[in-house]
Amino acid sequence: MEQKNLHIVIADRNSNVSELLRREFAGMGYRVSVSRDCNQIIGMLLGKDRPDLLILDPELTCPDNRSVMVHLVRDAPRLPVILHAFEPETLPGPLVWAAEAVVEKGADPERLKKTVDRIFRRLNPDSFA
After folding, report:
1. Is residue 87 part of a domain?
2. In this predicted structure, what is the pLDDT of residue 11?
3. Which residues make Cβ contacts (< 8 Å) with residue 23, sequence separation at least 6?
4. 108-129 confidence digits (pLDDT tens)
């Protein structure tokens, strides 16, 4: 397993989903952190070890009842975000437009893994040389 030196944050309300994804992406050589609430995500964005990509459950909300995406647009406008949702076709347009990609949740994480690799290869080609 080759270390890619790229940091992914997985933000999901379901600890089983986030743990599965953490193992999958760590196994691919990514550094992975898990967050289960808005304040943790914002703290990571403003901290020293900022992520290179966020995989976000769009149902995760902040205490001010705003979507995490509202805070991301303000605090980390260049951070690529993948919305990982059960019914992506029901997501509001502005939420989808602000994301780099939308991937439907399912039992098999392969589509999500391919999407992450595609985004990283485009944005960080040196990490895949």
Report:
1. yes
2. 94
3. none
4. 899 999 999 999 999 888 877 6
Q: What is the pTM of this model?
A: 0.91
Measure the CA–CA gap between 72 and 122, rounded to whole angstroms: 21
**Interatomic CA distance for residues 22 and 39, integer angstroms:** 19
User: In which residue are the tokens 């690799």 written?
Assistant: 117
Which one, of 64, 59, 61, 66, lies nearest residue 86 by Cα? 59
Structural domain of 116: 54-124
Q: Does residue 5 fall inside a structural domain?
A: no
Does 94 fall in a domain? yes
pLDDT tens for each residue of 58-75: 888 788 767 788 878 887
Tens-place pLDDT, residues 26-35? 999 999 999 9
Residue 39 is which amino acid? N
DSSP per residue over 79-129, as a string? S-EEEEESSGGGS-HHHHHHSSEEEE--S-THHHHHHHHHHHHHH-GGGG-
CA distance 24 to 110: 9
